[in-house]
Write a structure and sequence with these properties.
The chain is mainly alpha-helical and about 80 residues long. The protein is built from four helices and two strands. It has one domain. A two-stranded parallel ribbon has the order 1-2. Helix 1 packs across helix 2. The longest helix has 15 residues. It is globular, with a radius of gyration of 14 Å.
């Protein structure tokens, strides 16, 4: 099977329950690729649509040790556990 890379439109249609959302949801089971740039684009889109206050209050879910640092200015959930 061909590898799939998600862009910000794909992620946003999933989050907003758009018509392509079920296809994206199904692909998540196969662990598609997504770049850090795409993550940043999705964050920018969510901040514009929902407001910076909600983005600032969000908790980061990650397993990236570079983002799981002591005394970080953000709340994070370590998914490596």
């Amino acid at each position: 099977m061909t590898a799939v890379a998600l862009d910000s439109w794909a992620v946003m249609t999933l989050l907003q329950r758009g018509p392509g959302g079920p296809v994206v949801q199904e692909e998540l089971e196969r662990r598609p690729w997504m770049s850090w740039i795409t993550v940043g684009e999705v964050l920018c889109l969510l901040v514009r649509r929902l407001g910076a206050e909600r983005a600032d209050d969000a908790e980061l879910w990650t397993g990236d040790p570079e983002l799981l640092v002591p005394d970080a200015p953000w709340r994070a959930l370590d998914l490596r556990l």
